[in-house]
Amino acid sequence: MTNRKRASMAALTALLFAASLTAALMPLLVADNVHMQDLPNHAARAFILLNQDDPLLARHFYFDWRPEPNLGFEGIVLAFGPWLGHAGTITFTVALMLLLPWSGTIAVSCAINRKLTPLALLATPFAFNGAAAMGFVGFELGLGLALWAIAGWILLSRQPRWARLAYGLIASSLLYAAHLMAFGIYGVFVALWSLSLAAEDVRAAEPQMRLFSARGLGAVLRTFAARAWSDGLQALPAATVFFLYSEFSQPLSTVGQTPSEIANPLGRLKLVGRLVDAGPGSWCRALSFLSLGIIALGVILRRIKIDRRMMAPIAVFLVLFLLAPGNFNSTGHLGWRFILPFGFLLAASLRPGENGSSLTVPVLAALSVGVSVIANAVLISSYKDGDAGLRDIHRILPRIAEGSRVYFGFGDVDKSWLHSYAVGLYHAQSLIVTERRGLVQTLFTYRGQQPLRLRDEAIQNAPGNSVVFLAESARNLKAAGIDPKAHILGFDYLLTYGELTNAIRQNLPGDAMTQIAEAGDYRLFQLVTPERPENNLRVSERSTVGN
């Protein structure tokens, strides 16, 4: 290759990386609001963490710090919040959610290929994935950090044991603190990578040996065991803390999963659409399969190939995606999350194939960047309903007294519409915390997941607080022997979104509800009880916003 051609290829590579970076950040750069289901709730928790000396917030909240996992987001808030402020910290966090997995894939690819290659950019469409759309902040941050840790492990995997152990102790402990699944993803990879290296060593020592024969498998397992005992020591500190202190360390639960969902892995295939989020489900599935199809076509035509050392990790994460239970105690949406390490590691494992040309890699990378741009354009166009809802709730907020307690719930709302076009409204009511310094019961205060706690034990211990549908929350309360009407009367206001059907109204304290504001599909009711005469309103105060 001539110097001129090398310079042209270098310029093309730089252009592809710049285009990929822009595409990965496109929702943050273009949209007025990046709609993520749980992000407002996390933003509210960050606001409380940065304003712990506020007397109105201190009346409702406190932090219960324990040596548990899933503290990655809190770490970012504590480290950068004083410098960036609340809004800046949330923007920075969203950028990290998009960039850490993207850059981690590039890092793993560099570690495998020992050079920078645009093939890693085939993961560009996965940057804004289903976990990002659902606002799984800790998981996304942890996944990105796990990919970076995996890259480091690959580079050190042939180094002396003491070097691997020193690195592993730091990496596994930090990943455990960031998010439990990040620790698990890293651990699974380390074990399977060691197995791949064991097979490589046996093949190098005895080239004629068939690895899948009884003798070959025995040799591989013996070699693997020799590495596993020392490499596995890195997990000991985190595992010890987990079993001693974590409230997560309970039996695996399948609550919320039907037997058919667990027994039939083919039912999970539609959730491949979580690899690429583009708003409406049909777009998600089409673009996810298209992204995987680009990789598959390149492999079939032998333009690219998968590094054989990565075969085992990729296969195991695919199996976990198909077979893992849907829930782990109070953590939902567990099984399909494994499609994300599968997708990112698949892209990172790619190498030029036998039939590839100098243009193969740039063309495939450009196609994937194009898919990402299309996905993000569709995604941003789907934000219209969510943006309208945010404008409506901002019109409601001034009618809520500062420091108040608000019970929120969706009425008769189509969940498929909410997921596809208004996912940002799931926890938009968390603005009550940041704008009115009040309490809303749907905040995440789960032991073993977040350190935030509510001082009112009746609210803190109510089942399924983060459930945002009135019908479902009423069923949860009744199942625990709690009267929904009496429970709601423990709040100052009731904020609803959507139609309140007769079935829903049966579980609301209708006689104590006085509507004081309305904007779009939001309705705000003040709750009036004999015990709180100060909540009684004069007729002139019963005005409505937005009529």
Automatic annotation (TrEMBL):
<keyword id="KW-1133">Transmembrane helix</keyword>
<feature type="transmembrane region" description="Helical">
    <location>
        <begin position="134"/>
        <end position="156"/>
    </location>
</feature>
<feature type="transmembrane region" description="Helical">
    <location>
        <begin position="112"/>
        <end position="128"/>
    </location>
</feature>
<feature type="transmembrane region" description="Helical">
    <location>
        <begin position="168"/>
        <end position="193"/>
    </location>
</feature>
<feature type="transmembrane region" description="Helical">
    <location>
        <begin position="310"/>
        <end position="328"/>
    </location>
</feature>
<keyword id="KW-0732">Signal</keyword>
<feature type="signal peptide">
    <location>
        <begin position="1"/>
        <end position="23"/>
    </location>
</feature>
<keyword id="KW-0472">Membrane</keyword>
<keyword id="KW-0812">Transmembrane</keyword>
<protein>
    <recommendedName>
        <fullName>Glycosyltransferase RgtA/B/C/D-like domain-containing protein</fullName>
    </recommendedName>
</protein>
<feature type="transmembrane region" description="Helical">
    <location>
        <begin position="363"/>
        <end position="383"/>
    </location>
</feature>
<feature type="transmembrane region" description="Helical">
    <location>
        <begin position="280"/>
        <end position="301"/>
    </location>
</feature>
<feature type="transmembrane region" description="Helical">
    <location>
        <begin position="76"/>
        <end position="100"/>
    </location>
</feature>
